[in-house]
Amino acid sequence: MLAVLPTAAYEGNLTQKFHPSISEISVASLNTTAQTPFKRLLSYLRPMRKEVILATVYSVTNKIFDLAPPLLIGLSVDIVVQREASFVASLGFESLMAQLSVVAFFTFVIWALESYFEYLHSVAWRTLAQNVQHKLRQETYDHLQSLELGYFEDKSTGNLISIMNDDINQLERFLDNGANDLLQVATTVVIIGAIFFTLSPIVAIFSFVPVPFIILGSLIFQKKIEPRYRKVREEVGILNGLLSNNVSGIATIKSYGAEEYESKRLLDQSQNYSNANQKAIRLSSSFSPLIRMVVLLGFLAAMILGGFLVEQGSLAVGSYSVIIFMTQRLLWPLTRLGQTLDLYQRAMASTERIFKLKDTPRTLHDGNQEITSTQGHLEFKNVSFSYNTGPEVLHGLDLEVRPGKTLALVGSTGSGKSTLVKLLLRFYDATKGEITLDGKPLKSFTLKSLRSLISYVHQDTYLFHGTVMENIAYGSFGATEEKIIEAAKMAEAHDFILKLTDGYHTIVGERGQKLSGGQRQRLAIARAILKDAPLFIFDEATSSVDNETEAAIQRSLELITRNKTTIVIAHRLSTIVGADRIYVLDQGRVVESGKHQDLINATGVYADLWKVQTGLQTETAIYS
């Protein structure tokens, strides 16, 4: 029976939250894409307000204590010069050593507190960076995983990994240090400005003259460096894509003796990345030396003007010492603005790529009904389909699979067999027509619940890096070891597994490279058997096994698919002799259908294919 959980379970706010309308999605997309990457990044910090406030307090407090030693140096100079007339003496400490002891005590306390708050702000900002990084990477991956299969067919895997790894790590580096640097520079300007204007307003004015030029230079630098770092991130994405493809295809590279060719390709792309980086580096490196010269003017002004005021008697020697030290503390950190802004622009270039991926719209939308069981009645009604770029590959197909029956699809490469399966799994949606399950459109079901009803064996078997047992249990994560072994036996995989180094605990390698093609396929069949879904799909499921193993697997499949709706895509016609109905496809159209013997008797395309495979007719005779 068909069991459907109605949308009433998700009504109200929950429905709006998990199934927003297209218009709501569009408005949300417009609202987010209209924001700058920095503003969108701030939204990830809002739930961590308390942690951000604490980190800010630690940074500001650390800088306050960091600026205190020049004041203590000024007091020490004042003590040595003024002695009984010094500021510390006015507090009741008359002897020189007593005064110096007081200053020494406060120096120890201030340095200890400075070190303590440096530790606190370092831990706080790094923890925030890790939390934002973790959340952003997880959200980006979840969104990427929700995109339709067609999106991945046009993208470089290496570039996508570069975004979720390198770009997010680049953002982390800015949050680790950049935010703290900006806060401490601002704190420095405010505190030293207050001290200067208290001690000598005229010196303060001349000392602060370079500040507007430094800020203006920083803004100009930021504008010029931004496109250069965007180019750097693009080039590193291409480079990572090339590396990923080459590592995955290393066997092909070696078999064709293409090592030198690929080395040259990598050299060229690495050079492109290096050139883009050099352009950014040249501009980035020029900022600090230029700012340093502007800083020098402010320092010289404070030194000369302050010295003149001391000579005139209008400024104390201790105060002059404070001004000299504080001028350095004010102006030299401003030269780090170049490094901070450099880090910021690198992070924003990466953030832009991250949010561009996150903003990729989903064209395949989830249904709103959970389906928990099915009779297995499938119908393709006037179904047509074309990929994003290219002509139609299916043309008005009408197919039906009755509950518990087996349907076989036969046809030459490119006839549309595998595309039908992709539509059934809703990797894509039909451009015309409708596919129904027990009379309900597939689009009405949630993707997760629909796919949970299907056991699928793909012709291109994919095994994950892990053990044999983990790969068989993939998708049935709670399965017991006994169930896993039982599924392996039914797939005729148990015997060869026991001969492996560590049996079921043997690591298969990336993509199962330690196993033969037939072994990988039998593990994939065991995985589908273990899932034991009411709908079975086998796409060339025995294409990589020998005849003896094929016969054994065929016997197992006949047993496990009994009373289950089954779709078989077959190249070897011997595997579908017992199918309840066979459809012969040619260029996206059904040209024949019926049972095996009926199609043989019809002496059409299927009969010719059968004669070729059984040796009764040569292949050239079919096409003559």
Overview of the molecule:
The chain is of the alpha/beta class and 624 residues long. Among the domains are: 24-358, ABC transporter type 1, transmembrane domain (ABC transporter transmembrane region fold, Up-down Bundle); 457-532, Rossmann fold. It is built from 23 helices and twelve strands. It has a six-stranded mixed β-sheet, sandwiched between helices. A hairpin with a 5-residue loop joins strand 3 and strand 4. Helix 11 (259-312) runs antiparallel to helix 12. The longest helix has 54 residues, at 259-312.
What's the arrangement of secondary structure elements?
Layout: E1 3-5, H1 13-18, H2 22-33, H3 37-43, H4 49-82, H5 96-146, H6 149-153, H7 157-199, H8 201-208, H9 210-248, H10 250-255, H11 259-312, H12 317-335, H13 337-358, E2 370-373, E3 378-386, E4 392-401, E5 406-411, H14 417-424, E6 432-437, E7 440-441, H15 447-451, E8 454-457, H16 468-472, H17 481-490, H18 494-498, H19 517-531, E9 535-539, H20 547-560, E10 565-569, E11 581-586, E12 589-594, H21 596-601, H22 605-614, H23 619-622
Parallel strand pairs: 5-10, 5-11, 8-9, 9-10
Antiparallel strand pairs: 1-2, 3-4, 3-6, 6-7, 11-12
Helix pairs in contact: 4-5, 4-7, 4-12, 5-7, 5-13, 7-8, 7-9, 7-12, 7-13, 8-11, 9-11, 9-13, 11-12, 11-13, 17-19
